[in-house]
Known about the structure:
Elements: H1 15-26, H2 34-55, H3 58-61, H4 80-88, H5 93-100, H6 104-121, H7 126-130, H8 134-173, H9 176-184, E1 193-208, E2 213-225, E3 235-247, E4 261-271, E5 276-278
Antiparallel strand pairs: 1-2, 2-3, 3-4, 4-5
Amino acid sequence: MYEEQFDHVLHLLNYNEKVKLTFALRKLDHFEEGEHIYNFALSFQEVMIMILDRIAPDKDLYLCDWYDREQENDEELIHIARILYAIKNKLLDEFIMNELNLDMSKVSEELEQRFIRPLNDFNYTQEEYARLPIAQAQQESRQAVCLFADLLAYIEHTRQQLFEAYEYQLAQNILPARLADILRSTRKLPPQSSLQAVVLERVRITSLTIHELTFTITGRLTFDRHAAQAEDSAGVTWYRFRLTTYDSSDYPDTDITNIPRLQWIGRERRTIQGELLKC
């Protein structure tokens, strides 16, 4: 029953986390006395810590320029810095504000009010549980379950907002002329052809880690192919391509200056008579 609260975020969890989450949630069906409630709280807190430690490990968090260890309260179960890392990794707030026009201070405020404070309040000792009426303990436990599921969804949604904003900026700043210069230099281009058009189809972030940001550019090139001899057929050739590039993970550029890896993912050619040739 309670597992359904996590249906929309299960893809964010690994196998062990799913197993431990299921084990903890099933304890909610057997609330009969304070000890049972206490056992649920311990199990669920363990799951929350396990998931957050994986998506925001200490070794990476400590490498972030924006992270301030002194601001953390060791008595709290969930720290906002860990949630922020899960959202933005090493990205600086200055980059997010200046380049993406997103205000992370508002995100931090919403995280504190909606999720972190209520979840940190759900930290009962066995004695505290024993003094709670069963109905109240059940209700507060269920609220904690829903809050944590919603927190995971919030992390994914906000992270996706950052990605989409950055992808949009890249797409706006990529000049077809610059791509054409890069692509024209490769030996893969057809002989006796002239580049006619570069069509940008998609810019997508594929990875953001503590070390680097990786994104791909997919698109299509159009060439006019000139007949070298009388028996040759002239026509138009389409090359589909994928470019992969890497950048800083704290303040990446929003303009393309270097494309280190190029992959061709398909080609078609049409003759002057309109015949389609598979290449």
